[in-house]
Amino acid sequence: MDTRHSQIRNVLAMFSLATLLTVPQMARAQQPSAATSVTIHVAAAADLQPVMPLIAAGFEKETGIHVAVSYGSSSSMAAQIINGAPTDVFFSADYSFAERVLAANLADTPSPTLYAKGTLVLWERKDGPFQPLTLDALTNPALKSVAIANPLAAPYGLAAVSAMKSLHVYEKVASHFVQAENVAQAGEYADTGNTQLAFISLTLAKTDHMTQRGTYIVIPSSQYPEIRQCAVVMRKSEHHAEGRRFLEYVLSGPIQAQFAQYGLRSKDQ
Q: Any residues with CB less than 8 A from the CB of 167 and at least 6 apart, and which?
């Protein structure tokens, strides 16, 4: 009898020890990481299409937080956010559309945050009629079509109009405009041969595809108002802390130092 009781006690002790060792490990295995379970939603201006995936990938590798990005004109992005589109951070191509979101009492700061400065360029395919490309192409009698982002919705379109007026060529060029929804679409028009030229951002012009297909010239920055690209974080966002962390990552020294290779100037330049 004592022997049987002793054997039973030994089995129960072994079972209890195995349970103590196994259950915590199972609990840890079943409990997801707080960082990897979070996805933040970013609305970004179209000029950031070549840039944002690289930044988001670096951020996710460093923090485990996934970044889902949607692109469009700054105007359409701002309107969607104001109308309730789920967004954690908005990266506008200028100050004014970020300010609209702030005016709707949706942002967590009293003013938009400058994160970069943009550069306007004129782009043409390598098989185009104006090679080597110069600003004289804008007044060449052979000019028939120029793609431009909607100046009422896209900051780069507005910058292009301002530049042409400053260069005193607007009246000659305006009749040749083919208006695009955003700057990325303007680039597509020229890339596919639907227009001869396009005013686009330097970020788009510096992509591998566009440098292989065409050439560009930088429009002197003195000819248009500075493109101050600003961002806002939504104050009532479900992932406000992670959104704020992502913006701080974009503002950090290492990322700002990389902007030149992407076609942007840092916020301090």
A: 135, 138, 223
Question: pTM for the full model?
Answer: 0.85
* Residue-wise pLDDT tens digits, 124-152: 999 999 999 999 999 999 999 999 999 99
Whether residue 89 contacts residue 234, with contact meaning beta carbons closer than 8 Å, is answered with: yes
54/179 same-domain check: no
Looking at the fold, whether 127 and 219 belong to one and the same domain comes out as: yes
Q: In whole angstroms, what is the distance from residue 255 CA to residue 202 CA?
A: 17
Residue 122 included in any domain = yes
CA distance 139 to 148: 16
| Residue range 12-65, pLDDT digits in tens | 343 343 333 333 333 333 333 444 579 999 999 999 999 999 999 999 999 999
CB-based contact 122:198 (threshold 8 Å): yes
